[in-house]
Amino acid sequence: MSRIPVAEHAFACAACSAQAGIVQLFGPADDAELIRQSFTSRLTARIPVEGFDSVRGIILSGEIQPLYDWDQEVASFYCPTCRSCYCGDHWIRRDVFEEDDGFLWHDSIRGRCPRGHERMLED
Q: Full-prediction pTM beyond 0.85?
């Protein structure tokens, strides 16, 4: 697999213009991997051959809504209500923990954008 992305887009924070997140697609199509880096984490996902062209087109378009529609966690820095991206300095985020049989485990990351809209950022 090439370590040069075949598609890449960095999204800027609407509040301060800092980088909110970056999405990269590495190929070839039969061994594709998507990497998203943001304030929540680094997410890696395998892309099936039949989805490669679609995901590549979404990333190259630079449009965040189709990326969010495809996978909300890939667009973890995006508020769909505001239709804006925000960096980690502008999301108020909290870790959610669940208890099961006496064990406490990390369930998800939830956040509130600067305008007060809440969503799950990462599951």
A: yes
